[in-house]
Specification:
single chain; 266 residues; globular; two-stranded antiparallel sheet
Length: 266
């Protein structure tokens, strides 16, 4: 066999190995995800975004987050929104008043794809104004790839699971992030609590921002007041002497909340 033939033979063997690896990877993926989502993961692998996908980091009513690696061995968080959940039906109000998504379709699949794109856009806006949140990479239908908050496969804990040594400082940091998100990012988290904040390298990190809304959303003031109430409730339980909800609302917006804003319940 000539050297040229040997090279062709080696090349063919390498291709077969790659196919075998792809088949093995596909079997693992299909055991966890539906067929369409599995194909999206494989596509992201073929496009050089995801090198490997591993364990489940967290589970939720709307989505699961998985740990993965990119082709530069960077750690990734891969968020898979469920396409069979009824949880999204109550989320229409977060999209309906958002000018970025005028004319969105209300069908289940279309809405979930919009919901995933909304999280990507909100993360990009946060990154632009230096709010600590996962850096977004790409979204494809119901699959969002972003920065993994943690190190060596160990995810950063939720704020609710941390024994804060400097609770007063963390409280100030969270309020400052809310202020800068409002003033610089023109955005409100709209579901902020100790369940949607990670604690990494002694700093709070905002997560789960699909529902975050622009300031001109009709419910934006009420969402902000609810965020403030949640944060004050949690930090008061940690022994922090908090400002009142009205005082923080005024610090962030420059105006006092109206009785209507304070009375709306979701």
């Amino acid at each position: 066999m000539s050297n040229k033939d040997m090279d062709k033979f080696d090349e063919r063997i390498d291709k077969e190995r790659i196919r075998d690896k792809d088949r093995d990877t596909l079997k693992v993926i299909e055991s966890v995800f539906d067929f369409q989502t599995s194909m999206l993961i494989v596509k992201l692998m073929n496009n050089g975004v995801i090198k490997d996908i591993g364990f489940c980091v967290s589970t939720g009513k709307e989505a699961n987050v998985y740990h993965g690696y990119g082709y530069k061995n960077e750690e990734l968080a891969i968020k898979i929104y469920r396409t069979t959940t009824a949880e999204f039906k109550k989320n229409w109000m977060y999209v309906e008043g958002d000018p970025r998504f005028k004319g969105y379709k209300k069908g289940t699949y279309s809405f979930i794809y919009t919901w995933a794109r909304k999280e990507l856009k909100n993360l990009k806006r946060m990154e632009k104004v230096n709010i600590r949140a996962p850096s977004p990479i790409i979204v494809t239908k119901n699959v969002l790839v972003m920065e993994f908050i943690g190190k060596n496969q160990e995810a950063a804990p939720l704020l609710k699971d941390v024994k804060l040594k400097k609770a007063n400082k963390t409280y100030s940091d969270v309020i400052d992030m809310m202020f800068r998100l409002y003033q610089d990012g023109r955005l409100i988290h709209a579901d902020l609590s100790e369940y949607n904040i990670l604690f990494y390298k002694k700093n709070p990190v905002f997560i789960d921002v699909s529902q975050s809304v622009l300031l001109d959303h009709p419910y934006a003031p009420a969402f902000l007041y609810r965020d403030i109430s949640n944060i004050n409730r949690y930090f008061a339980s940690q022994g922090v002497e908090t400002d009142t909800n009205d005082e923080i609302y005024e610090q962030i917006t420059g105006t006092l909340p109206s009785p209507k804003v304070k009375s709306i319940e979701f």
